[in-house]
Write a structure and sequence with these properties.
globular; 28 helices; 39 strands; about 1100 residues; alpha+beta; seven-stranded antiparallel sheet
């Protein structure tokens, strides 16, 4: 509002200032210069001066305007005279009801040191009020209040504007404030009574509306069936959904901003702490009927559960909040689509290989046996002129395989997404591989909208006849098989798209499962901590996915029983059931805690080709199928409602069921109370507490630092000796805080010292609910008196009276700086430590790097050039060892030192230029970098993510105590377009290196820089292909939508309650609505955010 007012004032200065103030300046200047003999060429004309002044006014450059007045020899008396004259003209125009003209005069009156500015602002507020611009009027009234808080008229103006804006409570408060200043003011008395009556009536209307039955709703039941069908069709059409601004911004935020502008301070609401009822997971028959509906009670200022159940329509047409969240999750899924496929292409993952083999096998069945082959039989009803339909294109390799083997066949490719860049990328890839436009017909729309239409009709983006062969791409299946709603898609295809003698790939799938124990350590790890409290975070509205074969990124697990087949789906049946149930009986083969059911599928693509995701540890020695290749998510894990302790030989009764888009497992054999869940943690934190080498590196460095600190303390007289204080930044679950507390105990800190001086360790972690969980872990390990946890940004903390002698900082990412170590460590030094008498763990850090070429191997994948996918190498982290092993990356230079940071002495490097001598010819499209951190000042204890396949720059490093984190990943800076540099072996090149607060930067000399709206300077984006530009636009729109959703959830309690109910409802069955294609993990994580 203030910016709008300034913008309005800019225009005023071009007319008002010129017509009035400058006329006086010009007159006085002409009188003073009558005797001047300067030539006309040397003098600037009044018109030129006015043009310059007008330009300054439009730019809002008030300082330059004042300077201009000084250059014109205008004295303060002249400016005051012009200001008073403008004010008088404004008053005259106001009396004539010429409000626009009055606003211009009053704008000129504000120039310089005008007297009684509060009255001018009040008059401007009155003008804007009369023009119906109530928001601007309120802004001007608040300016009047700031100028003179003892003047009642300003409060009157603010109250009138707020009343017209329907902020009744705020308006009443303004009138009452004015009465405090002038109790006898009749206008304030009258309007305060009016505002009070309107406010009370509004509250009464809300109460009546809440508790009164609206019988008009029942009238709708009498409407004709035709009208109902039309309304349902419109509601189900996602292209017609209009998401109102109410669900992107909130009037509550505006009210809070207005109150803050007027000097009010409203106490914050209590924290939103929902509870998830695990019983909801098993109530799929009633969909959202049982979901919670939290409601904010503004009178009692508390959260309560509404007696009315949350909306339950599967198409979300009854909730704009659910539509907004579903739309965001679908777009987020589309943005992540290409990254997942690029990873699988790099790793030559099994699904791509299996689908290519399956397509070739289908083609072989159509064409009959080759020469010398007798095994294969030709399909008895479909020839090689069959019509093909690919639903989902994935990497496009299976599609291109069919097009290459069947150059004359009619092939139709359905992208099955809404994001246009997916279709554009597929078209670019096909064109690059010589596929003619007429070979493949592209249909860009969701698969459930496919239908056979009149070829001469308006719908040209659809099928014109039924198809004989259909290939359902791997992207339609999630690790739990059904999570993306594939059953409904198959039924739709069978009813409307396929001939009676069709062929389908895949033909079917079997879901397998095993009872698992996945629990945290009980004091047996390197940290010696009992983490049983963390196991209560193992839950979710939907199952989680991962790779049980991945030893780096998967928590240790144990199978407590044999593998069982759960469901078998035959996709060749005429119609698939959308729900089912079966009972399983396991015999426990060892003692343990059953808290998870792991499940996966074995998919039969054709009679000869299958894709088996059985974990390697559970795979039978007699299994004929090959083990999967590639580190992709292929296993699903459903956390049980409550963990069950089992003994060897116990029989476990599990009930499995499925609906249209998920599978569920429930323990039936033992009565166990289903726990309501209140808190969760990011899964990477659970992996982090198992990093034994990282823990060991920190423990050794802490021991060494405490030894020096305690030795120095012994030299100080006991009465003058300061208490031991340790600050821990980036505490997470307080793992290193507990390690430090135990080290302090071993160094000599006893109960008496803690009782006298308080906590030894102050741990700082910003996520409040993670802090809540960490406090429970402290109690479980009897360290709650040693460690104090603070859920606050260290930069916002006041200066601490008791200063720390040691800082432990865990704010290290694969690129060293990404978690803000520079900013937060500096803040901790200032606010919590002695200036020159503290130690830092880690002590120093060095960033190393090398130049690489990524993606050259994509030019040949199953005989096709997949290099268009290289345009999407935007990840910030990479597993370099894996990339070098599978040929995705090629090293083009030796390792070089980039930046050195001395955290102990607070010495930071400067930007500089590095010379690189390429060891191979090629194209540098990435700089991969990693850290080498000296945990102690002597540099004897090292923590590094140096790739194991690259030899160290200095082999003396191998003689030191080296520790590596797990998983071992490095950071990467990718170059695109014109910034990809072609180099020759031995020809030296240069690169500029520097760093921001949170990330190292690499740029080629001479790179053109541009400035973002935030003020940050970045390299000018290079030219990109159309599909990448479309992707960037979608990505920006998705990020903007995310910000708007967060904006509403942060500022409006009503939206927060509705948003939670909608998120819970979507997470329970993400693709229950066919209008959206959502990655279930995105929906699950969005719901979990309310518990983080």
């Amino acid at each position: 509002g203030q910016l709008g007012c300034i913008g309005e004032a800019q225009d005023h200065y071009s007319s008002s200032f010129r017509a009035h103030a400058c006329s006086f300046f010009a007159a006085d200047a002409s009188m003073a210069d009558d005797s001047s003999s300067e030539s006309e060429e040397e003098k600037e004309s009044i018109d030129d001066k006015m043009k310059r002044i007008t330009k300054l006014g439009k730019e809002g450059n008030l300082d330059a305007l004042v300077k201009e007045a000084q250059l014109a020899d205008c004295t303060p008396e002249m400016i005051a005279f012009a200001s008073q004259k403008s004010k008088d003209l404004g008053n005259l125009a106001f009396q004539k009801k010429e409000y626009e003209q009055a606003l211009e005069y009053y704008a000129g009156a504000l120039l310089g040191d005008a007297l009684e500015k509060h009255k001018i602002y009040s008059n401007r507020s009155a003008c804007l009020f009369q023009l119906g611009k109530y928001t601007e009027a309120l802004v001007e009234a608040t300016k009047a209040i700031r100028e003179n808080r003892a003047w009642s008229k300003g409060y009157f103006r603010a109250g009138r504007a707020a009343l017209e804006m329907e902020y009744y409570q705020e308006a009443l408060e303004m009138f009452e404030k004015g009465l405090d200043k002038e109790p006898s003011n009749k206008d304030l008395i009258t309007w305060s009574e009016k505002a009070r009556k309107i406010r009370n009536q509004q509250q009464q209307d809300k109460l009546v509306k809440k508790h009164t039955t609206d019988y008009s709703k029942f009238d709708a039941l009498t409407k004709s069936q035709t009208e109902e069908e039309e309304q349902d069709e419109m509601a189900n059409d996602p292209n017609r959904i209009i998401l109102g601004d109410k669900y992107y911004s909130s009037s509550k935020m505006e009210q809070r901003q207005l109150k803050a502008m007027l000097g009010y301070q409203e106490p914050p609401p209590p924290p939103f702490e929902p509870e998830f009822d695990m019983d909801l997971v098993y109530r799929h028959d009633s969909r959202g009927l049982k979901t919670q509906n939290p409601v904010w009670d503004p009178t009692a200022r508390e959260w309560r559960l509404d007696a009315k159940p949350a909306p339950s329509r599967v198409d979300y047409s009854d909730s704009q909040q659910a539509q907004a969240i579903a739309l965001f999750l679908e777009r987020q899924t589309d943005v992540q689509y290409v990254d997942a496929w690029l990873s699988m292409l790099d790793e030559q993952a099994s699904p791509i290989e299996a689908y290519v083999k399956g397509v070739r096998d289908l083609i072989g069945q159509l064409m009959g046996p080759q020469a010398g082959e007798e095994k294969r039989k030709k399909h008895n009803m479909i020839g090689n002129d069959a019509r093909w339909l690919f639903v989902g294109v994935g990497t496009t390799i299976p599609l291109l395989t069919a097009a290459r083997y069947l150059p004359t066949a009619e092939i139709i490719a359905n992208t099955a997404h809404r994001a246009f860049y997916i279709a554009d990328l597929a078209l670019a890839t096909a064109a690059l591989n010589g596929i003619r436009k007429e070979q493949i017909r592209w249909i860009h729309r969701p698969s459930h909208e496919l239908a056979v239409v009149d070829p001469d009709g308006e719908d040209i983006n659809n099928l014109t006849g039924k198809v004989d062969c259909i290939v359902l791409d791997y992207e339609l299946f999630d690790p739990g098989l059904l999570g993306k709603g594939v059953l409904a898609k198959i039924n739709h295809a069978k009813r409307k798209l396929l001939t009676s003698s069709h062929m389908m790939m895949p033909m079917g799938a079997s879901v397998m499962c095993a009872p698992l124990e996945i629990i945290s350590g009980r004091g047996t790890g390197a940290d010696g901590v009992d983490w049983r409290s963390v196991d209560e975070t193992r839950w979710g509205a939907f199952y989680e996915v991962g790779n049980l074969d991945d030893q780096q990124c998967q928590e240790p697990w144990r199978a407590l029983g044999p593998v069982h087949e759960v469901f078998e789906f035959d996709f060749t049946e005429s119609e698939l059931k959308l729900s089912g149930q079966t009972d399983l009986h396991f015999t426990a083969k060892e003692n343990g805690v059953l808290n998870c059911i792991g499940f996966w599928y074995r998919m039969d693509l054709t009679a000869n080709v299958s894709l088996d995701h059985t974990p390697a540890e559970l795979r039978s020695p007699s299994c004929s199928s090959t083990a999967p290749v590639g580190n992709y998510s292929r296993h699903a894990m459903q956390w049980l409602a409550a963990p069950v302790e089992v003994s060897k030989g116990d029989e476990i009764h599990i009930r499995a069921s499925y609906s249209r888009s998920r599978i569920r497992f429930e323990v039936m054999s033992q009565e166990s109370k289903k726990l309501d869940r209140k808190v969760s943690v990011p899964r990477w934190l659970l992996l982090r507490i198992r990093e034994e080498q990282r823990v060991e590196a920190y423990r050794k460095a802490i021991d060494k630092a405490l030894g020096k600190i305690m030795e120095a303390r012994e030299q100080i007289p006991k009465l003058d000796r300061p208490p031991l204080r340790i600050v821990h930044l980036g505490a997470g679950l307080a793992q290193m805080s507990m390690v430090a507390a135990r080290c302090a105990r071993e160094a000599g800190v006893d109960d008496k010292e803690i009782e006298t001086h308080g906590y030894t360790v102050v741990a700082v972690e910003e996520m409040p609910k993670v802090v809540k969980l960490a406090r429970r872990a402290l109690r479980d390990n009897d360290l709650d008196q040693d460690v104090f946890l603070c859920s606050e940004d260290v930069r916002k903390l006041p200066s601490q009276p008791q200063r720390a002698q040691l800082i432990i900082c865990e704010l290290i990412d694969p690129g060293l700086l990404g978690e803000g170590i520079l900013v937060l460590l500096n803040a901790a030094r200032i606010k919590m430590c002695n200036a020159f008498e503290h130690q830092v763990v880690p002590s120093r850090g060095t960033i190393w790097a090398a130049a690489f070429e990524f993606g050259e191997s994509l030019k040949s994948r199953h005989g096709f050039d997949m290099s268009p996918f290289n345009h999407y190498r935007t990840n910030l982290m990479v597993d370099l060892d894996t990339c070098l092993a599978n040929g995705t990356a090629r090293q083009l230079s030796n390792v070089f030192e980039v930046l050195k940071f001395d955290f102990e002495n607070n010495k930071m490097p400067t930007a500089h230029t590095i010379k690189i001598t390429p060891t191979e010819s090629g194209k540098i499209n990435a700089i991969v970098f990693w850290y080498e951190v000296a945990m102690d000042p002597e540099g004897e204890i090292l923590l590094t993510n140096w790739p194991e396949s690259i030899p160290p720059a200095d082999f003396a490093m191998m003689e030191k105590d080296v520790h590596r984190p797990n998983p071992l990943r490095q950071a990467v800076c990718n170059f695109q377009g014109d910034y990809i540099k072609e180099v020759e072996k031995g020809a030296q090149i240069e690169i500029d290196v520097g760093y921001s607060q949170a990330w190292p930067q690499f740029q080629w000399p001479g790179t053109e820089m541009v400035q973002k709206e935030s003020g940050e300077r970045i390299a000018k984006p290079p030219p990109m292909p159309r599909h990448r530009l479309t992707f960037e636009k979608l990505k920006m729109e998705t990020e903007d939508l995310e910000k708007k959703l967060q904006h509403g959830l942060m500022f409006d309690e009503e939206m927060l309650g509705d948003g939670y109910a909608a998120a819970e409802r979507i997470a329970l069955e993400p693709n229950g609505n066919p209008n959206y294609l959502i990655d279930p993990q995105n929906a699950n994580y969005f719901h979990m955010m309310f518990f983080l």
